Amino acid sequence: MANERPTVPPGPAPVVGILTGSPNDVEVVGKAREVLQALGIECELRVLSAHRTPERVRKYVEEAPARGIRVLIDDRDTQTPGWKFNEWELRGVPLRMEIGPKDLEKSQVVLARRDTRQKSSAPMEDIGAHVEQRLDEIQRALYDRALKFREDHTSSTDSYDEFKAIMEGRPGFVISPWCGSAACEAAIKTETQATIRNIPFTSVPVDGKACLKCGSPATAHAWFAKAY
Ligand SMILES: [Zn+2]
Fold first, then answer.
1. C-alpha 177 – ligand 1 centre gap (Å)
2. 128 Cα: distance to centroid of ligand 1 (angstroms)
3. What is the residue-averaged pLDDT of the chain?
4. Does residue 3 contact residue 78 with C-beta atoms inside 8 Å?
5. What angle, rounded to 10 degrees, do the helices at 160-167 and 182-192 form?
6. For position 7, which CATH number holds?
7. How far is the CA of 169 from the centre of ligand 1 (A)?
8. How far is the CA of 182 from the centre of ligand 1 (A)?
9. So what's the pLDDT on residue 37?
C-alpha cells in the first residue's frame, strides 16, 4: 500500500468509518461521530495507525468493503500533504475536503475549489448541501468560461476576402453564409484549409444573403474553422 496510487474498491452502499491514529484523538474525532449519528448516518470509530499498526490498517482496508465501507487511503509517507493535494488537483478532483485537528474542534470542513483555488470552510452539520452548492458554482463557472472563450474566438463575415484574411491567423470559428453545395465547401477548404464544423439550428436566417464562395443564394450560416 506504500507508494501505489489509491483506488476506490467497489462495494455495497457505504457507511462511514472514522479512523484515528492515536487513542488521544478519540475525544476530538468523537465529535465527528456525534454529528454523523445526529444525521442518522451509520458509522464506526477505530484507532488504527498506518505507522504503528500497519497490519491492522491493511486488514481494515481489506475487510471494510464487505461491511459497506468504501476505503480510499492515501497513506504514502514519501509525500507531504501538500504534494498529495497537488496530485489530486492534477487529477482534476473538483472539490477537495480537508479536515484537520483544528477543523474537528470547530466541527467544520475546509472546501478547496479546483477551478479558482479558493478555500472556504463549511459547518459539518450540513456539509452535503455546501458541497452541492460549491459543485454547482464550479459547473457554472466552467461553463461560463468555456462560453466566453468560444465567443471571444468567433467572428462572422459575408465577404470571402475578409474570410480569407481572418483564416490567415488562428481565427477560431468564422460564421459565414453558404449555399449548401459540397463543391463550394471543398473549394473553400482547398483555398483556406477551413472546413464547416457546425450549422446550429438556432442560426440567424440567411434571408437574401449570397454564398461566401459562389454568390448563389445562401441556405445557412455555417461555422467554419481550421484544424491545427
Ligand atoms: Zn456556394
1. 9
2. 56
3. 84
4. yes
5. 50
6. 3.40.50.1970
7. 23
8. 8
9. 81
Quote the ligand 1 centre to 191 CA distance (angstroms). Answer: 14
| pLDDT given at position 66 | 80
Query: Given this model, what pLDDT does residue 184 score?
Result: 96
The rounded distance, in Å, linking the Cα atoms of 44 and 14 is 12
What is the share, in percent, of the chain residues with pLDDT greater than 90? 37
Distance from Cα 170 to the centre of ligand 1, integer Å: 24
Indicate the residue among 149, 175, 205 that finishes a domain: 149
Measured in angstroms, how far is the CA atom of residue 208 from the centroid of ligand 1? 14
Domain count, the chain: 3
Please give the distance, rounded to the nearest whole angstrom, from the Cα atom of residue 197 to the centre of ligand 1: 16
Distance 187 CA to ligand 1 centre (A): 9
Q: Nearest 5°: phi and psi at 77?
A: -95, 5
Q: How far is CA 29 from CA 22, 50, 226, in A?
A: 11, 17, 57
pLDDT for 34 equals 83
**Domain carrying residue 167:** 154-226
Ligand 1 centre distance from Cα of residue 24 (Å): 79
Residue 102 sits in the same domain as residue 61: no
Low-confidence ranges of the chain (pLDDT < 50): 1-3, 11-12
Q: Could you tell me the distance, in angstroms and rounded to a whole number, from the CA of residue 119 to the centre of ligand 1?
A: 54
Give per-residue pLDDT as tens, 138-148.
999 999 999 99
The residue from 74, 106, 128 where one domain ends is 74
86, 137: one domain: yes
